[in-house]
Q: What sequence folds into this?
């Protein structure tokens, strides 16, 4: 454990360097994407103005999945190369991914209510998102379940990888389940056919969201590294005291 | 711009409550995360400085 | 091979014994299923409509009940350390324990299910498919459940954590399992669902030993 964070300074510097750029991307992307979506894009002929909720709902769905993929990749790096910063990046990402999942689920509910009069629709995407939310919760819970952070980190890494392998299968089975039970009127939360007036705000917002995530990550991983280092220092000081 | 007036913009064709709640929720969650992350960094920096002091004192 | 069978035998003896998983699992299964008519009403059409889902969900939960003890007893008395250091690869040793777990939970559940299906007014054509689907699906429950059990060895509130970690991963089994039974009830072919169940089982069988062994080694460090 001592060698592991022996040279965190490089990562701390890297993160500090990235931070302002990420913040810039976040602000520009989110403002332009959402601004375009709210002010300039057309309503849907079927759904009316509520289609604008899509500009929050869809990018947050993408982020929830993207962040899980990042977590899984970082977990793989953790298990194969035992790289401590990868482990911390995964840990730091999980609450962010869970937050995007919640945003996706709630905005999905708010989108569905005016359209179909119900607060929840068991369509394929929302159901998969709900399951993804449970996967995030389980991952976060596993980190909290052990006093030894090294043990917690590796266990969580295994869980994330198992979840990542399973996730496509889960999505497939939920899509399958949804088509089996498709009611007469097709209730899905697919937005209107993607055409440029709608695609560009979505892409801009998604880019902004990624910038936001990276910015958050630089902060959160910094906190994790410093916390770990503090723990190591305290541990070393305690053993020195006992020895001396 | 698509909207004729600020009133139209806020009303969103009668669905304003749903649309603005969605945007508000997203804003609140993302802001809360940002604040919590920054608070986390400050706390970790403090922890780190204290631990450094302690370690320095004992060596 | 004999080492493998020895592990299976030992776990079977424990599982079928007085404090074993068999009784708790079956009892929970029967009780849980029996609650549904009480909660939902005795109307035969409604019960028949939900029978596949109810039986599958109850089977899932019943099989999960005994999971957190799967490795815990062995960790406490040191057997797990021995297994990790034995010549038999840890993945195989884990598979042996999973096999024993299935023999004491999934298999009995599957055999009991047709009886409960009758109670829930399930279409008689669907009942053999239910049996087959459960036989194909419950091994996956034990395999994936064992991953959760190994990951949470010695964790705080491990018993609560195991369902949280495992149930989302088992949703495909639930969906394909119920799908098979409902297809049969509607007179359609259940084979696509059964094949998918089989594929999921094959995949879990191939991959979970690695995850389980990795998690056990982690717990023993």
A:
């Amino acid at each position: 454990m001592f060698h592991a964070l022996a040279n965190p300074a490089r990562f701390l510097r890297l993160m500090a360097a990235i931070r302002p750029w990420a913040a810039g991307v976040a602000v520009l992307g989110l403002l332009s994407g959402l601004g375009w979506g709210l002010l300039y894009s057309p309503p849907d002929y079927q759904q009316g103005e509520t289609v604008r909720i899509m500009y929050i709902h869809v990018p947050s769905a993408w982020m929830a999945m993207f962040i899980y993929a990042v977590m899984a990749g970082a977990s793989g790096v953790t298990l194969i190369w035992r790289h401590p910063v990868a482990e911390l990046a995964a840990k730091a990402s999980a609450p962010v991914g869970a937050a995007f999942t919640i945003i996706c689920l709630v905005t999905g509910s708010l989108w569905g209510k005016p359209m179909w009069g119900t607060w929840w629709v068991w369509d394929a995407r929302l159901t998969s998102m709900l399951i993804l939310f449970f996967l995030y919760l389980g991952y976060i819970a596993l980190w909290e379940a052990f006093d030894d952070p090294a043990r917690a980190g590796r266990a969580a890494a295994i869980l994330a990888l198992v979840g990542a392998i399973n996730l496509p299968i889960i999505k497939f089975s939920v899509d399958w389940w949804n088509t089996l039970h498709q009611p007469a009127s097709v209730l899905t939360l697919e937005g209107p056919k993607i055409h440029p007036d709608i695609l560009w705000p979505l892409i801009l917002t998604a880019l902004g969201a990624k910038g936001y995530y990276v910015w958050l990550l630089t902060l959160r991983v910094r906190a994790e590294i410093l916390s770990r280092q503090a723990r190591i220092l305290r541990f070393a000081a305690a053993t020195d005291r006992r020895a001396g | 711009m698509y909207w004729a007036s600020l009133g139209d913009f806020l009303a969103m064709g009668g669905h304003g409550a749903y649309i603005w709640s969605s945007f508000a929720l997203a804003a609140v969650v993302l802001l809360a995360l940002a604040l919590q992350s920054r608070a986390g960094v400050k706390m970790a920096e403090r922890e780190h400085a204290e631990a450094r002091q302690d370690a320095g004192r004992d060596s | 091979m004999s080492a493998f069978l020895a592990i299976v035998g030992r776990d079977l003896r424990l599982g079928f014994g007085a404090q074993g998983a068999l009784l708790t699992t079956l009892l929970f299964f029967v009780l849980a299923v029996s609650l549904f008519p009480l909660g939902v009403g005795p109307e035969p059409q409604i019960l028949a409509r939900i029978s596949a889902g109810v039986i599958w969900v109850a089977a899932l939960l019943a099989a999960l009940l005994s999971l957190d003890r799967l490795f815990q007893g062995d960790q406490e008395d040191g057997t797990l350390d021995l297994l990790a250091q034995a010549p038999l690869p840890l993945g195989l040793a884990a598979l042996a324990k999973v096999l024993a777990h299935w023999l004491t939970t999934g298999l009995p559940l599957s055999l009991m299910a047709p009886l409960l299906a009758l109670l829930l007014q399930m279409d008689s054509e669907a009942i053999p498919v239910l049996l087959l689907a459960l036989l194909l699906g419950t091994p996956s429950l034990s395999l994936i459940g064992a991953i959760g059990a190994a990951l949470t060895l010695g964790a705080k509130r491990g018993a609560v954590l195991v369902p949280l970690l495992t149930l989302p991963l088992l949703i495909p089994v639930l969906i394909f399992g119920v799908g098979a039974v409902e297809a049969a009830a509607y007179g359609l072919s259940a084979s696509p669902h059964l094949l998918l169940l089989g594929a999921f089982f094959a995949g879990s069988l191939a991959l979970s030993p690695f995850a389980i062994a990795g998690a056990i080694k982690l717990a023993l460090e």
